[in-house]
């Protein structure tokens, strides 16, 4: 007879004694269980003891998480969180440097547990740590001079414990003094500082800026871009990552009016070229977190264009009208005529003719063309940049098109406006950066005016594609669609420079795009006749069952998920997989992202499939309703899902990518007997159905298909027939 569901068999350790095998009744209060364990080893005052998971985490067992105890778990009897917090609170104030160092190391490890953290914070532990950092006592200063490694470790463990405690979100960031901020900033501003201390200090500054607008202003007063730049010129990628994260945080939280000023300072300090030479083109491969920070910097830089993108042109503004006059002057090599030269009508007629050649929609008053937002004044800025910095190409395009028939000319003005709008959509100008995206483009770090150069390459591509398509004015939208496809396909190849991007576009001519489209169309061939449709309906359930089995098999293989915390870089992972009999979800925390298969015994937690009530996705998930920096953005919402079980209990997921999101939501819905509705399922259904249809429609009359594969022939007696190319 199987044991009752509420009885769990575990082993319990106690230092200096043999482990005990014990059955725990989950219906009993935890205090009663601890008392029973203490009595077994003749220990008094059971209220001073607690149980921990005996693994690398050493997390305390509480009434909230006691259901995580599974059969075969190994527990450890230890001091209660309160007792441990009191002891560490006293020990870190020891006059002995060795004792202080050891206790701070223990505190840094213990602070990862929220139960301990709550007790230590209740003892005003955060204030004690900040005072230790702020004080900068003579003893610390002397120690720094005579025992630099020891000082570095002491300060490193202090800051690590602080960061771990703050990560639980129990204490508000707004409570910290200017003296503490100045001290942390001083560690960043020093040219020679222990690596671990520098890392923690940068992490603290980033969290302060992201979590408090008030602290942003205080940090911005203490830290300058010039002081951060030297940290990018080293070889430690972790330090470089933390440094760019602080720059991004300052950029993100800066008021609108200060962002342009900050961008100007970044340009003066040559941040882009330093990142290009020391990070992107260094010998060290770029890890995911660095890629994310570079992506965030890229997004924030392009978002500086949003103001111009959303600014309409004022047709009455003479300074803005002068830009259009400048475009005309460069194209046709004419100087602005004085007001008394010729009649007004004659000058108007001449302007109208030239504006028509420049490809504006409104020939009389081109300023009206720039009242559409987006792209607003950004389009005019791009046109002027192209005319001034690529003058030969600009003049060639304008004169070339003005010499064609009206219906075959590629209107430069209209094309530039629509192209600028398209590029803003492709680069998502004005949108907040995604929390888990790594999609940065190295080529945008190779030029100070990368967006304008990007436009210059693409406007020449548009003109080339227009000629290849022999397009007329009626084909304008078709040409823009082809150009978008050319740009998107070239960007997916992640060119390292703008020149490389340009050469990739050269290979993606209109003829090549047609070949690619034709190939894709053949692969997605659709048959519409009635017999074919009936055959499709007959096959569809078989294919759906095949997809279902594939999804369940993928769930059995399992997936590593990342736990998103307020400090994104210190990733915590957990793994989840479905049991081979499809009855239980096994899951558990991991120290790092797994490189191979995760052993079954390392996943201690489990959730019976029978207990699952529903699968919730997107903004309805409980972990998406929490407040956090950049948490409520669209991409994270699209990857979030939760499993509802028992009485309002949730298992929360954030998939690593869209593919895994579809696999898991499909698989969980299949387990619950619900329809699989993801885009991935639709795509698989179309692909497999198309293949199966083609196989069944092959002309196989009078062709006998063998039931067994043909035998493998014997090896030849010699290999003289092999030709050696060397």
UniProtKB/TrEMBL annotation:
Name of the protein: ELMO domain-containing protein
Residues of the ELMO domain: 319-491
GO biological process: actin filament organization; apoptotic process; cell motility; phagocytosis
Localization of this protein: Cytoplasm; Membrane
Any one cellular-component term (Gene Ontology): plasma membrane
Organism: Scomber scombrus (Atlantic mackerel)
InterPro entries (UniProt xref): ARM-like, ARM-type_fold, ELMO_ARM, ELMO_dom, ELMO_domain-containing, PH-like_dom_sf, PH_domain
Biological role stated in the UniProt entry: Involved in cytoskeletal rearrangements required for phagocytosis of apoptotic cells and cell motility. Acts in association with DOCK1 and CRK. Was initially proposed to be required in complex with DOCK1 to activate Rac Rho small GTPases. May enhance the guanine nucleotide exchange factor (GEF) activity of DOCK1.
Recorded GO MF terms: SH3 domain binding
Keyword Amino-acid biosynthesis: no
Lineage: Eukaryota, Metazoa, Chordata, Craniata, Vertebrata
Main location: cytoplasm
Keywords: Apoptosis, Cytoplasm, Membrane, Phagocytosis, Phosphoprotein, SH3-binding
Keyword Calcium: no
